[in-house]
Amino acid sequence: MKNSTTAGMIFILKEGLAASHRNKLRTRLEQMGVSVKVVAGPDREYLELSGDDAPVRTLSPETWPGVERVVELSPSWPHAAWGAGSGRSATPTLVTIGAERVPIGPGQFTIMAGPCSVESYERTLEIARAVRDAGAQVFRAGAFKPRSSPYAFQGLGREGLEILKEVRAAAGLPIVTEVLDVRHVDEVRACADLLQVGSRNMQNYALLKELSQLRQPILLKRGYAATLNEFLLAAEYLLCGGNDQVILCERGVRSAAGVDGVVLDLGTAVELREHTHLPIVVDPSHGTGATHRVLPLARAAAAAGVDGLLVEVHTQPETALSDGKQALTVAEFQRLVAEVVAVRAALDAVNRPSASAPLAVQRKE
Ligand code: PEP
Ligand code: MN
User: CA 51 to CA 195: how far, in whole Å?
Assistant: First the structure.
């Protein structure tokens, strides 16, 4: 059965592509059943495809020599999707956090770290200083905690927010903390530079609508079992209300096949880049649930090309009030920072324009 779509696609051609090459491409596409219009841009041409493009969508962008990028126009999440000529972002979005304007997005690799929960002022400040000195650029800690058990520590709430305010001033790092309830938005935003929407709230549409009215960055974590489409639709709730500062966070999904029932879904993290201009970060702590799995998966995420990490760190994991089993010690976190920086540097060295192209893949036509 054909899955016919009328949304259309845009092929952004490489700068300076020869007309003969473009015509070949056009003929090949027309043979696949779509109508093609050639549009001249300021520095390159675009092919606008209409009609039944389902067969074209099944092929990966690498199939098309001479094409810089393939943009699928999506009627479902137009603000989150790559756009060209439609007023939407055709370039990756850079979000900046706090007065320090910490960047997350193209050309960056941003590390956010801290304990699962705000504990005492002294403990929280101690961890903030330690992660800052190890290379974190944003401090994470939850004051309102979503816990599976109603008997588990629920976070310090308002007292935790006050602690975060003081820690921000003392440690000089912008803060990311979770907003759990639509009734808490004002008080949380007063102390958060980046507001976290947790996995359990990804589909809390009342909360998303409220946050869409803010002009403050939001870290949207993927729901436990959300599809890519549902994740981007949740982002769309924020974006369509006018809040264009949204960061997506892959934090693992439920799977009986995963260790402890969770799988860090790096495949979807990579796939998201095909569909959206928003920054994408990975949480290898909740995404693996155990200290010894955090570092290898952080390395993998860095190698996969995401824009940053969200990592749980504690100066005494064995005493942590929540998620101690997945918290890195400061020494382990220092190692993580060194290793992910090394991974990125190695990839940059191979990919920089002046490097010869040892990794060029020969494709069959
Ligand atoms: C957290 O970041 O502490 C948290 C509870 O995350 P998630 O919503 O992904 O479970
Ligand atoms: Mn946690």
Answer: 41
Closest approach atom of ligand 1 to CA 140: 2
Report residue 353 as tokens. 């324009």
Q: Taking CA 306 as the corner, what is the angle to CA 200 and CA 112, rounded to the nearest 5 degrees?
A: 65
Q: Which ligand is nearest to the CA of 317?
A: 2
pLDDT number for residue 55:
82
Q: Which of 231, 250, 283 gets mutated to test ligand 1 (max ligand atoms within 8 A of its CB)? A: 283
The beta strand positions in 179-277, using DSSP E, are: 194-197, 218-221, 246-250, 253-254, 262-263
Per the CB < 8 A criterion, the answer to whether 315 and 123 are in contact is: yes
Q: 60 or 50, which is more confident?
A: 50
CB within 8 Å of 55: residues ≥ 6 apart: 32, 33
Which atom of ligand 1 is nearest the CA belonging to 199? 8
Confidence of residue 199 (pLDDT cuts 50, 70, 90): very high
pTM of the model: 0.81
pLDDT digits (tens, 9 = 90+) for 85-119: 444 678 899 999 999 999 999 999 999 999 999 99
Relative to the alpha carbon of 283, which ligand is closest?
1
Average pLDDT of the segment spanning 139-155? 97
CA 272, 203, 193: angle at the middle one, nearest 5?
75
CA 109 to ligand 2 center in whole angstroms: 21
Q: For residue 316, what are the β-bridge partners?
A: none
* Cα 220 to Cα 208: distance, rounded to the nearest angstrom: 9
Nearest-atom number in ligand 1 for the CA of 252 is 9
Ligand 2 mean position to 13 CA, how many Å?
Answer: 44
**Rounded mean pLDDT, 254-283:** 96
pLDDT at 74: 55
Looking at the CA of 310, which ligand is closest?
Answer: 1
